[in-house]
Amino acid sequence: MSTQVVQIGEVGVDSGQLMLCDPSYIGSQWSERDWEDMDVNLNEPSQESQFDGEFSYVGCCVSRQVEGMAGQLNYRLGHAGAGVVTNTGLGDGCYPVYAEIEDMGTWGRRVVKIWVDFMGEEDEDDA
Questions:
Q1: Spatial CA neighbour of 46 closest among 27, 59, 57, 32
Q2: β-strands 93-103, 70-74: how paired?
Q3: Which tens digits make up the pLDDT trace of 5-16?
Q4: 13 with 93: CB under 8 angstroms?
Q5: 83 neighbors 55 (Cβ within 8 angstroms)
Q6: Is this model's pTM higher than 0.90 or not?
Q7: Is the pLDDT of residue 123 over 50?
Q8: How far is CA 34 from CA 57, 61, 94, in A?
Q9: What is the average pLDDT across 16-44?
């Protein structure tokens, strides 16, 4: 089975973070809380925040502050799976997105992996 890596596009970042989710959940699961009504200091990392894991903008900001710089976003009922969020390498910018495509025989060509390069290709001499 053959494998191919291709750049599938770019993603712009203006909040220093990136979220991965099924687009259909944005309409049905996303919390539209007013930012001003929230009592959250985003400069103070907190694993116990009431917004940790919430599928909302502030939930993204809080969830990614835990060790590892990424976090799980939950459905409205509280279980995992709505999405994930991560810090980006150097903050805001436009980052390339790649896919690994594999020929799966009778299933045809399928995307088996995607990734975002937040830091650019590393020179082997720098490794």
A1: 59
A2: unpaired
A3: 999 999 999 999
A4: yes
A5: yes
A6: no
A7: no
A8: 10, 14, 27
A9: 81
